[in-house]
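Recall that a protein's primary structure is simply its ordered list of amino acids. Everything else, from secondary elements to tertiary packing, is in principle encoded there. The following example makes that idea concrete.
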Amino acid sequence: MKSILSIVLVLFAAIAAHAAAPSGKPLPRSPPEKQGVSSAAIRSFIETADRQVNEMHSFMLVRHGFVIAEGWWTPYSSATPHPLFSLSKSFTSTAVGLAVAEGKLNIDDEVLKFFPEEAPAEPSSNLKAMRVRDLLCMSAGHQVEVKLAVTNEWTWTKSFLTHPVPHKPGGHFLYNTPGTYMQSAIVQKVTGQTVLDFLRPRLFEPLGIENPIWSTSPQGISLGGYGLNIRTEDIAKFGQLYLQKGMWHGKQLVPASWVETATGRQTSNGSNPKSDWEQGYGFQFWRSRNGAYRGDGAFGQYSIVMPEQDAVISITSGTRDMQGVLNLIWEKLLPAMEKASLPANKAEESNLKETLAGLSMHHPQGASSSAVVAKFSSKKFVFPANEQKLEAIKLDADSSGRVTNVSMRMGGVEQRVECGHGKWPLGRMAYGAFTNQPVAVSGAWTADDTYSLKLCFYETPTSITATLKFAGDHLLYDAEPNVAFGWSKQPQIVGVLSAVDFGLGHEGD
């Protein structure tokens, strides 16, 4: 799946009780104590997550329909869309449920029914038995996932239908992103619209989710299993809609029966009581410990619904330890949710607000200047051909010796970005698979001869930490992303000081 993944989310007892936001408006806000949660407990969670999770990008806690805490780690912000990765699957499932409600398909329909022209000449009995329900439950009968690639000469649906189905559908759990793509393809087949366009008037617009972006396959079908980009509050609204059994501002957007079925345990996927990935699986929703359920995506994108606590938690992040984030929620936040309101605590509420307002991605730690800067400021280092496509680099410094700009030429593209020390100035740049992406750059000298540079691509979960070690007329360059599919620390490349000027066009200014 690396190829396609690099192409690169309780019915109101009474409306007043939950105070759902009107269509198109933000969720209402409230002090934490008024909704039965201690500000100090939330602050403890935030501070612990900031220390232990690498990296948190955003957090929003909704209780009784009110946002009681929200924060973004600079340079991430409330306006920043974030890739949902597999959290997108829960939205695709919702589209299937709405298509079912409108009589356009049935979850017991056989998958082959929708693509007779792409079926194998002699389909196996297991393929013939595969139903939409099996796609929803991750029990299509595959032993391994289908490899879908942009260069495949077949359509993605044909690739899926020609893949071996060794197991009887319905009995073998396999996390299967191409199976979610097939759900998207089926919705498009029966409605004539992509899942994105189908959901726009039925879900996104009523919830006030503006400008959702959903990538498509070479055949123009929403990717389904990933590819949706929306904001943190949009994720929270989606979770709140499900908490309210599909009701929003007095209107039933999603049938309550679908919500109950989709979030219930439909498939067994393990028995480890300490794992939130072995509590059962619904229709593109994970069952969780403590009576909760969630949609989630790679590197820590969460919409966690806690019916027993009448709460929703929305998180975006760039972490390799997704279970660790959930452990912190059960340890810090779950016990803090009281049934009744708590006495107002203005001091702790103020402390929480100050903590949330001051959140920032961790900068490289070290000195702002070094003696080596005087020798190499504005001098270009060139590199031999390498897989990272880094051709040249230079640092510019001010009179105090602080690095102010970083210039790079990668893959023939020359660019310059501002670099901060203890701050995140914003710019744009291309790096690896990223083309002209928003970026924030911060750096520090970790030794007299070594500069640590962090590139935060803040509309993605990815940051890249580069280490530049100056050794005479050579520059040793190491780079490592925080998270990536199939990409870890890169081989060191060595640059040589050049007498030729960089010749930069200043596109990155």
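Confidence is low (pLDDT under 50) at residues 1-23, 504-509. The longest strand covers residues 434-447.
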